[in-house]
């Protein structure tokens, strides 16, 4: 029997720099799962920390100790044991029952199971959790463990807590405390299922399932010497059953012997179908049930879903260095990925519906993999379940990020326990295809001046090279592991390589954003790109909701609060001016920076995909945001798609035509990432901007399934007569690529009259049709300007003279539908760089 203990909680401060009005309020109602910040916000005691500069006003919360308390009335223990299960305590917690300490905890990422049979019996009880300030705890632990290098302001590496909770270059410094995941009271007898770790393989007629079942035991019920054992004719049994629509149910069972805390069972599953990543096949899932039974009585049950698949990451020497490529069910998978950060600075607010919305946006962007970054959390089961159903692969970092970590106690035991908890919790998800030892720690040790500062102290190498691979080989043996991201495997003689070597393993590309123009993405030729990106502001409606500056400018106070990157505004402008002039007006500045982000990311992804299979994948930084902020995200902190999401959809298309510089000229590269070959006629045209054809070339092409074909652009097409007035257009069946010979700021684009449009009512919104009178680049509808809840199906379409495009807008009924055609909504490059020029005199 299980019940959630989520009702009747209050929270109050218990020491720290607490404002008088909060002290005077006394205990306030607390939501469980929840956090102090959101409880104070719900009680009207603090402003919304996501707005303006309120983040700074709430810094005191993270420096304060907090007490959660509730009174529960319980019946007698129904069985041999009563367990109190804390699925997530954030973070430095002392749990008391009726004044007696039953737990001291200091790891946000762990599950704690307490035997409370003798302390939470029948009657009324007071349960209290005191959270010490994680900021002050981390500062103190840094002194105990020894100072170690880290990024940002706080020593987050001294405590096992979500690193970005202490602030990041896209996130707020809002250090939380609270019961952030469920708390559960469980009565049970004999044995309780504590974890289930399935491993699947494919066979000639279906699949095979090996299941490790971890158990909590009630020793007196299992014949331990000195205790009363079970009846001889009613032994405890562990039964595993698997069933799905596509195959008949199968089961296996074994007797539970005294003292056995892990039971292993195997069974063949004829008719089981393989689970595939999206765009490679279907995602059939089978229901898995594990029961502990005595006779016909079920004592404990675990249920989940599994998919039958096999996965490998192949890292082997070749003519280009050392590969890093994904293979699922024996078939290579070219990764089209995005990085995932916590979707809210207060993660308890992210429910399954929100996961579904965000991951649907990843699918809409053509992605097949999501990397869960090491500065966040091991996400809720709902996240991985959504990925299972959608065929979205998951790369899971162990939670180390951009820091060195002490390998001594008490940190070592916490790391060991949290990985045990989460490896067991997540093992049944077929979408999870990689464990990674953390983010940029190996790179930091080599390139960020850590070694001298550490002066011989441990820094995490023992975790990622020894503890984690051994532990995961025990708990999750069929799932691959790499020591970090970026990571380069050792050379043939065992020699160490630079961890961010582009020729070996997985690389992070950050010199472009930090130091260069985004066209420099094309200079990188990694074997796998696990991080790269470009910043842009949130959507307009998100921005003006979060920042109330008057006037609102690119560098007004609220804008700077919501820009966390070092020299972020300078880098935005530095990255814009080679391509577009910096606009004077705020709305045009917002559009220009949004567009520039989208084009930078599109350029990077198209280039990396054009290198396949040498480059076996790319993972864009980043899909989502945790609050309203200027950042690298494609979806902003309010969940709205930025233009970058449309850019990703086009760049991730199963069939892509992209024009790339090659060997001093240009090449039309056709990327066919589908199971079917791609055949037809490749048509290359050099056109004047008014559509006049100046040169043409056609040739038949055949792109094999899941392959890339590069076709040199003939000199007559690659050499313009008037660089500012011409464009190269490359068409293959179902896809088009573009190339201009000068930057957009120098193109002779038409502004006035370049686009005309109509708006028609549709059942769920409006249909907007536009037509181009001249070349119009990157046409987009910023529909949130008209309705913050509006969504448009496409964007960033380039049109030749006379071409039309149709946009479908889902939104409420508008008072003025023609607002969808206003110049602040219907956008293009032409508005930013165009000018009317008489080019008739140009020879």
Using the coordinates shown, work out and report the CATH topology of the largest domain.
Answer: TIM Barrel
Q: Main sheet, how many strands, which sense, barrel? A: 6 strands, antiparallel
Counting DSSP E segments of at least 2 residues, the number of strands comes to 46
Instruction: Report the CATH architecture of the largest domain.
Output: Alpha-Beta Barrel
Helical content stands at 10-25%
**Alpha-carbon Rg, integer:** 29 Å
Question: How would you summarize what this structure contains?
Answer:
The chain has 843 residues and is α+β, with helices and mostly antiparallel strands. It has 19 helices and 46 strands. Its EC number is 3.2.1.25.
Account of the protein in words:
It is an enzyme of class 3 (hydrolase). There is one protein chain. With 843 residues, the chain is an alpha+beta fold. The protein folds into five domains: 2-186, Galactose-binding domain-like (Jelly Rolls), CATH 2.60.120; 188-306, Immunoglobulins (Immunoglobulin-like); 312-651, TIM Barrel, CATH 3.20.20.80; 655-742, Immunoglobulin-like; 755-833, Immunoglobulin-like (Sandwich), CATH 2.60.40. The chain is built from 19 helices and 46 strands. The N and C termini lie far apart (86 Å).
